[in-house]
Amino acid sequence: MTIAEVVPSLLSGLDVPGADNTLGLPRARRVVLLLVDGLGHELLRAHASHAPFLSSLPDRTIDAGFPSSTATSLASIGTGMQSGEHGIVGYTFEVGDEVLNSLTWTRASERDHDLRRTLVPEVVQPHPTLFERAAAAGVAVSTVAPLLQRSSGLTRAVLRGSWFRGAAGFGDLALGAVAAVEQDRSFCYAYHADLDTIGHIYGPDSEEWLLQLEFVDSLAARIASRMPAGSLLAVTADHGMVTAGERIDFDTEPLLWQGVRVIAGEPRVRYLHTESDEVLSVWREFLGGRADVLTRDEAVDAGWFGPVSPLAVDRIGDVVVAMKDAHVVVRSQAEPVLSSLTGFHGSRTRAELAIPLLVHSVPSV
């Protein structure tokens, strides 16, 4: 059971053709899906006392998919596919001659270099979204998310097809989500980012993160309390998070450079596009038990990406490095801000992959 199955299961209750309720969720004709960035199942369970409302809901765990990264999971939410099908295979990945930062839709090495014209989002991810399918079936589909995401490359690529309402804060997000499901056959996707941001900066077990979790719990409770009779609130996440352990710095380890044409991904999962067959053995020996280092074919055959289409194959890289425990491969010179963070995600540990799926049904009058 993966994140890709969440929206189809919810849309089945709205009678959208082809939407299968594989997760067996309650049927409702007014649905809000709240996605809390960074709310891993393990973290929520460990800190249940800070989230009494969310922890009171039936506890169910699903898989975020690999890599356990925001852009990838949001693409799975929006398309109902895993990363090997929709092709948004990580935080950064190679597309043609560019390394795309899929969150900002800019060149990975230049955050101000907008790639929406040269890497058209609707071409990079060409599959119809679930939102488009639902809207075509007569469902009133809305997205409530931060204002700056309205016309972002990622929104266009994986969330297109809904009416977008920009939210400036908690109150705006809550009231916007409730207003979006006032009419019959309505679906709202609402997105909250700050818990993830706090986790990256301070760590997912910090006092700052715990206080933010309390705010998130209050947000979810307030949405639930204002929703109309007979509606349904579902809460999930895109990944969990770990606090960084050992930092291996690619930029200061010349041995790791040899034969590597492009390094993409993020600190917990790296894609190596290579010019030498020796890269695999060098990285395996250097990292030892700190990572799973596989060829693309090995990772695909192991099912890491789900079914893999021609669209995604070259984006994955010749070698896939998935870090174990809490180790990270940073780039202190090329990615100074990213390398300095405290919390990370992207790899295959349960702390990163396991996400909650919580459902609150509002009783009918």
TrEMBL record:
It comes from the Bacteria. It holds the Pfam family Phosphodiest. Signal peptide: none annotated. GO terms for molecular function: hydrolase activity. SUPFAM superfamilies: Alkaline phosphatase-like. InterPro entries: Alkaline_phosphatase_core_sf, Phosphodiest/P_Trfase. PANTHER family: BIS(5'-ADENOSYL)-TRIPHOSPHATASE, ECTONUCLEOTIDE PYROPHOSPHATASE/PHOSPHODIESTERASE. This is Type I phosphodiesterase / nucleotide pyrophosphatase. It comes from Lentzea albidocapillata. The lineage of its organism: Bacteria, Bacillati, Actinomycetota, Actinomycetes, Pseudonocardiales.
